[in-house]
Design goal:
Blueprint lengths: L2 H14 L18 E5 L3 E7 L8 H12 L4 E4 L5 H9 L2
Parallel strand pairs: 2-3
Antiparallel strand pairs: 1-2
Keywords: Hydrolase, Nuclease
Organism: Streptococcus varani
GO molecular function: hydrolase activity, acting on ester bonds; nuclease activity; nucleic acid binding
Length: 93
């Protein structure tokens, strides 16, 4: 299963829950999470999408820690089966 397939599943699941999930592309700030998740009632999350069993690169881990130090959770998603779990976590924070 490819990362693209998981990412497409995430975008659809967010839309099904009434939210939006834009891709975060930042040429001047590499290593940021792939997707911003905006859900109803002001819920927000940062999601790094990976192919199954892949881990974030060193720079990505550094960026995740930076966001976490600011109080934001960064979710690493590596399977379509975990999409609901990640979105549930975002909705309950």
């Amino acid at each position: 299963m490819r990362e693209k397939y998981i990412e497409q599943g995430l975008v659809k699941a967010v839309k099904d829950r009434g939210g939006i999930c834009p891709k975060w592309v930042s040429p001047s700030f590499a290593g940021v999470p792939d997707r911003l998740v905006f859900l109803p009632k002001g819920k927000f999350g940062l999601v790094e999408v990976k192919a199954p069993h892949e881990k974030p690169r060193k720079l990505q881990v550094s960026r995740h820690k930076m966001f976490e130090s600011l109080g934001f959770e960064v979710y690493v998603l590596d399977s379509v089966e975990k999409i609901g779990e990640v979105l549930d976590a975002i909705e309950t924070t």
